[in-house]
Amino acid sequence: GAAPLALGVGGLSLANFVADQFTRAAWLGWTTLGVAAAGVALLGAGAWRDLRAVLALRHVDGLRADLASNEPRRIMSAAVEWAANVPGGPALLPALRAVNDPDAALSLLRAGPGQALRAEADRMGRTAALQMVAGIAAMPSPSLDVLLVAWRGVRLVRQVAQLYGVRPGTLGTLTLLRRTMGAATTVGALEFAGNAAAHAVLSNPLLAHLAGEVAGAGVAARRMVVLARAAAAACDPLGRAAGR
């Protein structure tokens, strides 16, 4: 109820303001109308982008359900659709259309674009981990560390989502963060994998020294790696189909 009321009152106020400008001078009215129309168009474009991002995340859920089903036709249709929209997937379309075995199709996807996307997400996580170590070491105040970790974490989740073809706006990012947190609690051995990857990142003597000197730098680095893998799990429909 509050949203329609706010939008309605705001729209009426804007219309009255434009009409009032027309009473002063025609050129002033048209200028005001152009500015108002541009602002409304930009707001509408942002809302449409957010809606598309949320719908894209729901579509991932639909593909995940299809791939995890026991219906060969649904599995093959979802496999072809996902492969057509991810990097490296279109090259597998002839092979996917040639096979009639859903398990073979899923194996092709996991060994091809699925593995490549996960590897790229891991690389993004390691890059963010390195930036965390260097950034926290350079921060003059511990309170700024929290802001740095939060900003870099949100940016990392958005980067991984864009890797999988999802371009989240504001609402899409909030939805994606919620799903990422859920994926982090359900994906098995994430913390162990994150610790191992972060250990590899911090194997450089200089970075290890910096992480040792700054409290929380090593923890933040591990969290970036785990966060990247959790975001990939939230955007990858193949993850929940692994039980086939």
Structure, briefly:
With 244 residues, this protein is an all-alpha fold. 82% of the residues lie in helices and 0% in strands.
Helix and strand arrangement:
Blueprint lengths: L1 H23 L1 H42 L4 H12 L9 H6 L3 H37 L3 H22 L6 H17 L3 H12 L3 H9 L3 H19 L9
Distance between the termini: 45 Å
Order of helices and strands: HHHHHHHHHH
Taking pLDDT < 50 over at least 5 consecutive residues as the criterion, the unreliable ranges are 187-194, 240-244
Average pLDDT works out at 77
**Proportion of residues in β-strands:** under 5%
Helical coverage, percent range: over 70%
- Number of separate strands: 0
Biggest β-sheet strands, sense, barrel:
none
- Alpha-beta classification: mainly alpha
Q: Count of DSSP helices? A: 10
Q: What is the gyration radius calculated from CA atoms?
A: 24 Å
CA-based shape:
flat
Report on the architecture of this protein.
With 244 residues, this protein is mostly helical. The chain has helices at 2-24, 26-67, 72-83, 93-98, 102-138, 142-163, 170-186, 190-201, 205-213, 217-235. α6 runs parallel beside α10. The longest helix has 42 residues, at 26-67. The protein starts with a helix and ends in a 9-residue tail after the last helix.
